[in-house]
Each structure stands twice: as structure tokens, then as C-alpha cells.
Amino acid sequence: MTTEHGGHAAPANATEYIQHHLTHNSNGTINLDTFWISLILGFVFLGLFYMASRRATSGVPGKLQNFVEWIMEMVNETVNSAFHAKSKVIAPLAITIFVWVWLMNAMDFLPVDLLPKLLSYAGVNYLRVVPTADVNHTFGMSFGVLLCIIGFSIKAKGVGGWGKELFTAPFHAHSPIAIILLAPVNFIFQMLELFAKPISLSLRLFGNMYAGELIFILIALLPWWAQWMLGGPWAIFHILIVTLQAFVFMALTVVYLALAVEKH
User: Fold this and answer.
1) Is 208 a catalytic residue?
2) Are 249 and 212 in contact (CB under 8 A)?
3) Half-sphere exposure of 239 (CA within 13 A, CB side)
4) CB-CB contact of 201 with 149 (8 Å)
5) Is 153 designated active site?
6) Any stretches that span the bilayer, and where are they (predicted)?
7) 249 near 94, Cβ under 8 Å?
8) Does 55 participate in catalysis according to the annotation?
9) Secondary structure of residue 125 in the 3-state scheme
């Protein structure tokens, strides 16, 4: 059962409240809330870094320049420690992944009802504000990582070298008969390894952010004084989760691409 509020249906009990906040604004093909929020945050990332680059100075840096330089140094250390091949793409890719995923995760810090309430006056009845709590989005990002893995492998080893590796590793053989017998086994293991990487990458991020979003929704159901008592400590702890999950997604992407360019 629902009640009318501001011309729109509002949840009447806890179950409907939770279901309402876990329902996407979808057109039947894509989740529009995930698409637009992630797109806007992507432009926010580009705008901040462009602004920092325009304001960069060799003298006393400002707060924005310090912040951007700190992120770049942190990401560069991760890339240099894991990726030993030469690539002009890997560092910008890692920075993009870390900052973009962090921004999407950080949407969880907004009050649960803030954006849904504001957009309800514009006729938007459903809105989920954390794109990384949408498994479709995390799978989409991990599919992009999968394409990068294949692309980096082919660039480093050539189409023939990559194709040969699919049938000759991890179990190596020298005689023609053993090579033929082991080829199907190697191919199966290679496919399992190839697809397990993006699947685990996607589900790890989705699971953590979905759980965080659900806890905030449950806290929002409590009396106002209990919301502050429980919401404050959880929000502080969630800062670690938001940052850690962005870092893990970025670091594992770098590791997977490093493995892709190495020869068995």
C-alpha cells in the first residue's frame, strides 16, 4: 500500500520503502539512473582534472593541485610496482578507473532520500544514486577490462602468439601428440582464467557497494536520533570501503593487464 505525497506514490511501510529505494529508473532496456549518474560523474572527473591541469604551477601549489598530484603519485606507484612493460595507456587508464569508481562509490554518502525526493518533483519516481551498486554497471566496466586484457595480450604477443598461448599454456608439452592432447585442456583453463577475472572484479565491487547502500537504507528507517548514532560511525567506516574498493578495482586491473603482456 502506498500513500500520495507531492503528487507521487510514496512507500507506506518499511518493506515498500526498501523496495522503492532498490528499484531502478529503467526504460526496460537500460537503467537510466545508473547511466546518467555515472556519465555525469565521468564529466566531473574530467572537469576537475582539466581544471587542475590549467591551474598547475611550479610554485606553491593550490589544494586542488596537491590533491590531484597525490592521486597521481599513488596510482603511479601502484602501476610501477605491478606493470613492468612499456605503455602510454596504463597510467591514465588506472587514474581514470580509480577516480571514476571512487566518485560513483562516494554517492553512497548522500542522504538516502535527498536526490530521490528532489527528482520526485520532476516526475522521477524511482532513483538509485550509486552506479556501482548496479551489477549491470560493474559487469559493463569489467567487460571493458576484459577487452583491455585481450587487446594488451594481442599487442604484446601478436594474434598468433596469443592464439598459441591459449592452446599451449598452462600445461606445456614438446611432442606433437602431447601438444594435441593437451590443447583442449589448456584452452578450457585459459577461458576459465580469462573470464574469472572480470567476473570476480565485477561481483566484488557490486557486492560491497550494494551491501553499503542497503545498510544506509536500513539506517534511514530508524528514528532520527538512532540514525545519527548509527549512521555517523557507519559513514566514517564506509569512507574506507569506498576508497578501498576503488583502489582494489584499479590495482587488479593493472595486475591483470601486467599478466596479459607477460609471456608464459
Assistant:
1) yes
2) no
3) 6
4) no
5) no
6) 35-53, 89-107, 171-189, 210-228, 234-259
7) no
8) no
9) coil
